[in-house]
Amino acid sequence: MAWAPAEPTEPDADLTVRAAVLAELMRGRRAVVLTGAGVSTGSGIPDYRGPHSPQRTPMTYGQFVSDPDFRQRYWARNHVGWRHMERAEPNRTHEILAEWERSGRVAGVITQNVDMLHLKAGSRNIIDLHGNYGSVSCISCTYTINRWAFDDQLSALNPGFRERVISRGAIEVAPDADALVGDTDGFAFPDCPVCGGILKPAIVYFGENVPRTRVGAARALVDAADLVLAVGTSLTVQSGYRFIRQATDSGRPVAVVNRGTTRAHGAASITIDGECSEVLALVDAAL
Fold this sequence. Notes:
By secondary structure, this protein is of the alpha/beta class. 38% of the residues lie in helices and 15% in strands. The strands form 2 sheets. Strands 3-2-1-7-8-9 form a 6-stranded parallel sheet, with helices on both faces. Strands 5-4-6 form a 3-stranded antiparallel sheet. Strand 4 and strand 5 (144-146) form a beta hairpin.
């Protein structure tokens, strides 16, 4: 499943004017915000489909659960990349969305990201559509361990591995904390200590379904809102795009802030091509 970057576009020249139009659309309405990787690029986490993103081939759920060699590669690379994501701090986009929630302008955030930056910024009504990196669970029983404790286990099983990899130079890290590490042979990882099953991050992999209860909660949030605002997402993946369709089918307006064209452009009341933090700061000032 190869992911190609979006076609390059030029940012809108009239950002201030468009931001004022979006502010007017938001005025008197409670929005639900649907976010993607573009909101976190300002925090040092790359996106999947930005105009300058490299082509990526993420691991699928089927590969992870069916082949221990794939799991070895995943955990070795994640052991390096996870710390990069864990150290990331919210940027102005996350902060503005949290402020809008506190003021009542935003009813909640549905995020396709797994980086937990909305939580760090102070948002509280968050639906992590694709899960988050904070825990690891057994796919066969109810065993769960937090990611920090699991990282200690990986470090104990593979002393010095992360340090050796980092010492060789800069490492590229994908949005799901997958570091591009070449040599993963011999990397050791534990199975479930309760049943011997496969331990997996609490993240929805490509090829895996979003849990129904999570989708239901997101749909309820959209139904309770007056507006859907998509920020930093191309909406290529159906798991996020379905909420745009839900909004338009029910007559709710949709607004889009993103670098590049999105799947929702044809249905949106307004689209703004610009960096998320710059655009939301202009909208916030107009409000």
